[in-house]
Amino acid sequence: MEAAHWLVLLMTLVPSSVPQPKDDFQEELVIRPLHSGDIYASFQFRTLWDTDFMRENKVSHYRLFPKSLGQVISKFSVRELHISFTQGYWRTMQWGQPFIPSPPGADFLRYATLPREIVCTENLTPWKKLLPCGSKAGLAVLLKSEKLFHSSFHSQAVHIRSVCQDWQCKTTSWELRQTVNSVFDLHNSGQAKREWSLFKMFSRTLTEACPLASSSKLYIDITDNPQGEQFELSPATSLLSQAVVLGDRRTFSVYDLTQETTFGSVRSLNLLIRWKSNEGEMLRPLLHAERYVAGYGLQTGEIHTLMYNNHPYRSFPVLLLDSVPWYLRLYIHTLSVTSKGKDNKPSYIHYEPSKDRVKPHLLEMLIQLPPNSVTEVTVQFERALLKWTEYPPDPNHGFYVGSSVISSLVPSTVAMDTNSTRERPLFSSFFPCKEESSYFVRIYTEPLLVNLPTPDFSMPYNVICLTCTVVAVGYGSLYNLLTRSFQIEEPNPGLAKRIANVIRKMRGVPPL
């Protein structure tokens, strides 16, 4: 009896000695109504785990963090990983700056890009399986492939990195961020009225938060709509929040999905945005970039990169990273940087030449952009002639060149508090900045489409057809002459001769 008493006591003490799980999951959806009538929707799912894959040789228990990614981090000692798949091009001058930028196509951090990579359901399905609730509950139920891929811009990404738990960074945690950014075009969606709802955008509504999420919120950017004169929100909410996003203080209406009152009596949230006025101007981004190819013919050309500093009185440096395929042979001696019609000498230049069929060109420059100016970077190149086996199935479509990457600390008039990163929304804390007068921005230019000297691949077909015809006619005739047998046939007697023989036979005379 006493042994049983001690056994029960031991069983009650064991759970208290087991450490509590040190992981956390948050999900957010930010909707920004654009002045063009389009809608920008940004999903962010954040999983934070207080563990060390480098020191602990074997992590056996996974609760929220996906095991497939944890094994990769532990086996290959990954310190940071960024992968994105993007369909479309982000129009900065029309939509502003995205919360987390990504280039068209597929991107990896160190550093690889596939500008023509097609994003499809095969990329979205395994992405959703990394979430703790999958696509069964929470904000992920809105990620319907038919609607996302029909939008004018779509990007999905996975970001893994270690973040500090305190301001001295004595202890770190692993952070997994899964993001989806999409812009729904008013005209492509076939909308007759300028109004949006969750059901019209995603063909679904929200019914519950992810049960494993500590925070599940929906943000609506109402910075340009303080009094409701531009658009109307239904149902309305009294919960507001302010956050510094890309150097600008923004105001948001907040819908907390962990509260039952958010869904009302119907247990469903179908947010409606109805536009009232087309007036208002979008805040022009301080840093913007473009790129294009100039020249004529299929021998030489020139790459132009334009960087705009729209700040009225502040100059700031930018870091330009450009990776050019080997079949565009750059003439580095023709590299020029001009601002306001004058030479702008870069303070730092790093160049690694390409090696045919092995590695591309790598050009990195640190350039100071004067205030309210356009800085142009030009470099000439020569097109290489590929082997006929190196051309894609549609060579006349052209060859894609990846986007240029521009990174900078852009001046800001709003101070950013970095000590309360966890208290701010997720979309405002991916690039924390210690400088109160600036914030970090990374932008990508559009990819280039370059034509290379392309042989006429129809000529082999014509040669094959002509050769086969000649062989068939010549060899067929010769084979017919060699294998045909000739026989001599006597001609049949005519009708007059046969009649004469019949008459001669009746008269008893020998036939002719």
Automatic annotation (TrEMBL):
Keywords: Signal. The keyword Zinc does not apply. The keyword rRNA processing does not apply. One of its GO terms (biological process) is attachment of GPI anchor to protein. This is Phosphatidylinositol glycan anchor biosynthesis class T. Residues 1-19 form the signal peptide. Pfam families: Gpi16 (PF04113). GO terms for cellular component: GPI-anchor transamidase complex. The lineage of its organism: Eukaryota, Metazoa, Chordata, Craniata, Vertebrata. It comes from the Eukaryota.
